[in-house]
Structures are given as C-alpha cells and as structure tokens.
Protein 1
Amino acid sequence: MRFGFIGTNWISDKFIENGLEVESFEPYAVYSRTEERADYYKEKHQLTETFTDLELFCQSPNFEAVYIASPNAFHFEQAELAIKNKKHVLIEKPATIVQEQYEALSKLAYEYNVTVMEAMKSTLLPPFVEFTNDRIDIGEIRYADFHYHQYSSRYDN
C-alpha cells in the first residue's frame, strides 16, 4: 500500500523505517507547508511526490493511505479531508482533540468505505493482546481511572 505523509518529524521517520519491514508498504508522498521541507523529506526517504497544498495532496490518485503526524489540533481537519478523498487514514495519538471528532471521522470512514485508525502501539504489546484474548479473567470492571503522564525533555528548558 502506498502511503502519503503529513508531518515531517521523527515519528514519521520511525513509521517509515519500521514500515519498510513490511513487504506491501511503500512510502510515496509527503505534504508540508513549505517546498523546502517537502523536498528535504522527499530526498531523505526517497519519496516520489511532494505537495504544499493539502487538498491536492489528498486528491492525488497515486497513494491509498495517509499517515498523519502533525500537531494534534490539525488531526481532525486533515483526516476528514483525506477520508473524503477515499484515503485510509492512520493518525498519531491522540487522533483527535475530543471524542466527538473521532466519532465523526469513524462515521465518515464508514460512509467512504475506508479505514481510520489511531496509531496506538500499546494495542500490539503482549499484555494488551493477552488481555483482549480473554486469557485473563479480571472479573467485572466497575471503575477505571486513567491518567496520562509523560516526562518531556522540554521541561528542563
């Protein structure tokens, strides 16, 4: 499957690096707001096309899927445009800012017969897989309290 990329950062680099281990994966195009950055990313990953216009990027018939690793505030509008152009979409976490946006993307993906997914590595880790395969019986879940904490190297600055 040919992929187009929105987001020219280290996480997209890692996605391409790991994706190349899958035979059917082909990094193909990149969208960036500047030609300079798009050209740099094209050369870095030996991509075929660059775009500085998001609509033209999403309208391209030359790739089937889009990986979105832009700032979180742009995920919804970028994914919506890609889906409306019949692209499968994989969005870095968080996929959207609010739940209603993701629900809207899910409905839209169903309508356009494409897949939309949040890139959530933890769903592939052995404890999660074991848990979801019903090998662990923890009984009835009555309450869950989730906290997200992450140390950022930017804190020191």
Note: The radius of gyration is 17 Å.
Protein 2
Amino acid sequence: MTAEKQICFGICLCQMIAILSGVSLLYLAVIVIIPSKNELAMGFRTTPIMCTTVEAIDLAREGKKKPDGEEDACSWTTCGEWCLSKGSGTCMQIRVMVRNNGSKVNFRDCVDISDQNCSALNVTNTRSYKCKQGECKDITGLFYCTKDVENNDCKEITPAFVCHNKRINPKGIQCLEKCKDPLKGVYFCKAGKCQGLEKARDYLTDCKRKCTNLEMRERNVIIFSRERLVATACTSMDSPDNITSASIEAVSSSPEWRDKRQAIFIFCSYVNKVNGKTTYDILTEDCFNATMGSTEELSNLKDYLQLLSLHQNLGNRSDWIIPPESSLRVMNNTQLRINPDGCVNTLRKECTAFFNTHAHDGSDGMTPDRYPCYFTDQSSEFVIGKFNPEMTATILLVASILPGCLFILACSCLFFCSKSVGVDDEGHLRVTLLQGGGAGAAKDPVQFDELL
C-alpha cells in the first residue's frame, strides 16, 4: 500500500469513526444516558419492599378503554418494548399495593413433608388467547380451546388441571401468526406447536383437578406460597423479627401445637427447605396471614380449595399470630413500571418475561403476584420493578465515555490531518507536518514513507 493510500485510508477511517460515534452518542443520549441519569437522580431506595398486583389490564387489547367504559389514552405503561416507539403495541398497565416486608419464620425439625403445586384457578375468569388474531404463536402449557367462529379462544389450565392416560395426537398444529388448523378440545402446547389429546374434549370431564386428594393428618404446619402448598409436622419454630418473635415462640412452646392438636396456617412468599440428617428445616420469608386452627378440622379436608376456605375463615374468627397483608400496606393502587420510563430497549422480549411474573392480579382465582419493588420519596405516583444502581451507573459511564472518547479521538485525528496533510503540485497527498500548511505550499513536501 502506497503512502498516499495509507493517508486516504486513515482519513476515511477517522471520518467513519467520527460519524458512527456521533450518531451513537445521539441515540444513546435518548435511550440510555438521559434515562439512566434521571433514574439515579430520583433517589430510589436500594432496599426493596414488596408489591402485590391488584390490577393488570392491557388497554390495547381492551380497545384503549377500561372495563367501566372510561376512555384512557394510555398515558403510561408498565413496560413497552423500544422507548423510541412508545404508544404502539401493548399498553399493559399494572397497579399494585405497596407494603412493607412480611416476617421471617423458621420451622425446625420437620418431618413428613408434602410439597405440591396447587391452584385455585377459575378457568372461566382466566385470560383467553385468541388464536385467529395470532395470540397463540408462543403459548406453552395445557390449554382448553373452543372452536368458535370469531376468535378460536384457548385458555390455559396448566396450574389447576392434569390429564393422565390420554393419548396425544402425534400430528401437531403449528401456530404462527395464525394456527394452521382451528383448535378445539384439550391441547399440550410448546412455543406455539400444539398436540391434541384425542379423547379429551372438555377439561371438566376428561381431566382431573390437582390437589383433590390431600392428606392432612398429623400436620401442624400449613404453608401457602403462591401456587404451592407445603404441609408438614415440626417440633419448633422461631422468628428473627422482633415484632413477631414473641407470638411465634408462644405458639412453638404451646403443648397443643407440639402435640399436633393445633396447626398454624401461614402465607409466605418464599419457602426454602434445608436438608438435615433425618429431618428438615423450613426457612420462610415475607410471611403474613398466620393463624391457628384445629387439626381435627384440618384432618377431614382433602381438597385444596376447601383448605384455602378454612384459612380464610380462621382469620375471621380467631386472632392473628402474624397480622394480615393489609396491615403492612404503605400505598394502595399505585402504578408499577419496570423503570421510571416504563420501557426497555433490549428488544429481547424483556417485557414479556416481566409480565409473566408481575401481571397476575388474582382475578382468575390464582394467587396474585408478589415481588420486590422500589420506591422513591420524590414520587408516590409509581414504583419500579427493577433497580440496580451499580449496573445503571456502569451502563451510563460506558454509554457516555466510550463513544465520546472515540468521537473526540477521531475529530482530533481529522484536525491533525487538516494541518499536516497537503496536496502537492502533481495532485498527490503528502504529509507536510505543518510546514506551510496549505495545498501546494510546500516546495519539498515530506514523503510519508520517509517518516517511517
């Protein structure tokens, strides 16, 4: 490569870097730098509290209207893909009850543990995926579909029903924008590919509800954890929280509980089993709604829905060992956003994953989603679901410094070239090293290859 080509290549490279880094700075300022700076400036507390979903509605799916008919122009969203095109696609709005964290309770030396996935799902109230409108392209689980003319609705029944000993049709139906064939009956689906159960046309008659044959004898601890039921017999329990430690220790030392004549009913968001040599310890966090009940009344129950009803009735007729969730409330009916802007720019279906763990409001009978959230004293209008100040600061620095340094470096090189590169009388580029500056000004231009 000749010296002149090297000079041209260097100038073109600097110009390209300057343009690309300048454009990058422009876009990053809008989608990263300014939002990150504002998020850090809002002073969100780094210690999370808890949120419970009380309402989740997609206004785009509902025709930009709320159920009561009020017009809503989608002035805010919980999460939208790509901030530069806000207002298009989904308009999911999630409202939450913000509360303090519940108590920690440790159950010691537990045996005969029953740990099952149970659900109070009411299929009538659950969401319908409209296959004729392309909503079934990503569905996964067990679904009951009706072959109606308008939508071809499919409702997920995975949490509450199981279909045993049913022959699955090996011929699958692929659902992309629309399903290849209409779906009718019970189907197993994975990422939009559905296979029908040949002898199952109705989930009520051909499938069995989960957790209808429970064994509650000789149990003195009943833990509800989202769609999970843990029943066991323990010899003691304790709490590291000062507020609840006295009441928990009083129950733990009572002969009625130790002799399994009474059982504690409690709801905990997080349950962790720790294996021992012959027994288990169960460590729980964010617990509330704890009350006592008779094991005689408990032992006759076989159905999960009856067990939930008993827990509710006990709370109405007896004292709370740990107060109910409502007593921990800080704010009610508050907006939830994934971040202050309510949008993300990763384009990796981050909002879809967020909705999967935050958008269940309990209207279909399932337990409402509960999760950590973050709030700021500067605003009571909303809370955010994700906050990592160290990561946000790192992204802010990288998005600012890297393209900024490249832009300054490229522009500096171009400025240096404008002062050190000239054109001789024959029209060739030559390095002049500031000797005369202008084109053709140097009688004896220094050759570039002579400098090497």
Note: Confidence is low (pLDDT under 50) at residues 437-443, 446-452.
